[in-house]
Amino acid sequence: MKAGKDKVVSLHYTLSVDGEKVESSHDRDEQLWVLLGHGQLTPGLETALEGHEAGETLQVDVAAADGYGEREEGQIQRMSKKYFPQANRLKPGMVTVLQLKEGGQRAVTVHKVGMSAIDVDLNHPMAGKTLHFDVAIGEVREATEEELKHGHAHPPGAAAH
Fold this sequence. Notes:
Elements: E1 7-17, E2 20-24, H1 25-28, E3 32-35, H2 43-49, E4 57-62, E5 76-80, E6 95-99, E7 105-113, E8 117-121, E9 131-142, H3 145-150
Antiparallel strand pairs: 1-2, 1-3, 1-9, 4-9, 5-8, 6-7, 7-8
């Protein structure tokens, strides 16, 4: 079966940026399970997986526009330290996660730390960068009705929700 929209794909991956490993599913010894076509991967990686089958390996370079987007100027925002659980430990250049009012999270980069506020860069930390993925596809299968309804894959043995 070939990977495509509404198919569940399990994969191992290593992500590198500028020749440096950023993260790898091998470090957790756990495959990533995704439901294709539901925004769980960067668009460039999702497109590259389409048409591939279980057992295949591929190397994918994803341009910034198809990854985390281009860097945008003017994205520095000053925020009260109260929004940062570990505010006193943050230093310029560190990446932290903000909880959003409307739900969800957003990764930001600390730009400057003041007495009562922290300036953060709202660009994703990997915005403007070409992403290199080494991917090994483990399984490709049809999504269940429940997975389609929930909008994400349910790995084997995952707790019901």
